[in-house]
Design brief:
The protein has about 290 residues and is an alpha+beta fold. The longest helix is centred in the N-terminal third of the chain and has 13 residues. The protein is built from five helices and twelve strands.
Length: about 290
């Protein structure tokens, strides 16, 4: 999967009934289904059950079991409430009739109100950057080899980090700022479709940020990493013709879990969405 058009084909679900939809999966480097794919597909299912004038403003998810890449995923939407201004949906994703993921999503009719936002941090522009993740091959050959194979997997996203160098054995700040851009994104995508694409991208770079302060002892080989829950708040519209900045910080890791929060800005500095995720960070022995 190398283009945004291919990604859109993956996110757009097959309709079985007014509230049941079916999705397939794509290998993205993990033996399990990529979490961002399930978030985007669940949002697609929920969006198709609400009035056209209502837009998702937030979603909250739990990853219950690893998804099997070889099985279809069935999305069951429960129509919780249709109010005067807000619509609520609850979504279960199942494989072999066993829930692997749940989501609550809230939709709102367009309204005007007060406005303020946090400023975008001052960072190098994406044209000044060239790498996403870089690990020195001479000092850490095994980790570098694994990451090279991961980075070579075709993706519909291009990513460039403001801090691409990861130095195992050296402590790093619990921060990460990554520009991302959808490859060959079609023109004039509607905002609901853009939301689903942003949901897909929002699962990249999040949990790894929580690992940064622990690189003296932890790395991708000796630590089990897995998303546990995920939340997105959508603030303002944008298109996908340009780069977006994901500004991430991990305020805490404890109990074999790491928490990361982030803001997604467009190049002009408009805050598009906010993201929060807690994930498993479990030390494990390497055989």
């Amino acid at each position: 999967m190398q283009t945004t058009t291919e990604l859109l084909g993956l996110i757009e679900l097959k309709k079985h009934s007014e509230t049941i939809f079916e999705g397939a999966s794509n290998f993205m480097g993990s033996p399990n289904v990529f979490g961002g794919q399930v978030v985007a597909q669940a949002l697609n299912a929920a969006t198709r059950t609400v009035p056209a004038e209502r837009i998702c403003h937030s979603l909250h998810c739990y990853f219950i079991l690893p998804g099997n890449l070889n099985l279809p995923i069935m999305y069951h939407v429960m129509e919780i409430r249709d109010g005067g201004s807000f619509t609520t949906r609850f979504i279960q994703a199942k494989q072999n009739d066993v829930p692997i993921f749940v989501m609550a999503a809230s939709f709102q009719k367009v309204e005007e109100g007060y406005f303020h936002q946090a400023p975008m941090p001052k960072v190098p522009m994406p044209e000044e950057l060239s790498q996403w993740i870089n690990i020195d091959e001479e000092t850490h050959p095994h980790i570098a080899t694994m990451m090279k194979a991961y980075l070579e997997i075709p993706r519909p996203l291009e990513m460039r980090s403001c801090q691409p160098d990861i130095r195992p054995g050296e402590e790093a700040s619990p921060e990460n700022r990554v520009w991302f851009k959808f490859k060959e994104a079609p023109d004039n995508l509607d905002w609901k479709t853009v939301q689903q694409l942003i949901a897909y991208a929002s699962d990249y770079n999040v949990l790894s940020t929580a690992l940064h302060p622990h690189t003296r002892e932890a790395n991708f080989l000796n630590t089990q990493l897995a998303s546990l829950d995920h939340a997105i708040w959508f603030h303002q519209k944008t298109d996908l013709s340009d780069w977006l900045l994901f500004d991430l910080i991990s305020p805490i890791a404890s109990g074999a879990r790491g928490l990361t929060t982030g803001h997604i800005f467009d190049r002009s500095g408009r805050l598009i969405a906010s993201v929060s995720q807690e994930g498993l960070m479990r030390p494990r022995s390497v055989k």
